[in-house]
Amino acid sequence: MRLPPFPKLALRLVQTIPSLDGPGFLNVRRQVFRVEFPDGSLSDPFTYDSVDRERLDAVVIAPHYRGADGRRHVYLRSALRPPAATRAPEVCPFPEAPTLGALWELPAGLVELDERSPEGLKRSAARELLEEVGFDVPPSELEPLGPSTFPAPGMVGERHFYFHVEVDPARQGAPLEDGSPLERGAVIVAVPLDEAIELTRRGEIEDAKTEVALRRLAEL
Length: 220
Fold this sequence. Notes:
The chain has 220 residues and is an alpha+beta fold. 18% of the residues lie in helices and 29% in strands.
């Protein structure tokens, strides 16, 4: 079915309130808006906080291959995510696992300023694939894996751009990593695609962008 048209609402910026904090990797942007309705009327002003950063968008890559049994396998990488690891106990509706903050993810990374183009996104994906999983492939071999998505549009304007590429397990090298202690010592594993999707159903793979890419890959 076709979705109905969006309501004709528009944001009108009233004021941007400068942050008292110095610039960092992430910046809180506090703005005052009014909503303009289809009849031309305006809402009362309201304050809205969002997060911004210089390198806003990210690429997500699904490296895969066919095993001897004919099943498609994908490479996953362990990641330690401080915001998830430091969730306060009082906000949790149920007890968290002792591994809170440790996630299985597909390789992914931020798009550099000079990569903001269709060709640049492929360069970004190839770079992240080498850094995080150890496969050195030409950017031209990266294929789109569906449209981009907004992972948290109520908080940040980041887009995720998805790619997939068939790799040769025999040509895997050591990941270059990016120098961050959060990337050091990660575990890399190849998992049959159907089993990886089952792990998302069981909550053992909790990363949303990874689940989106895995399910899209299964649809190819």
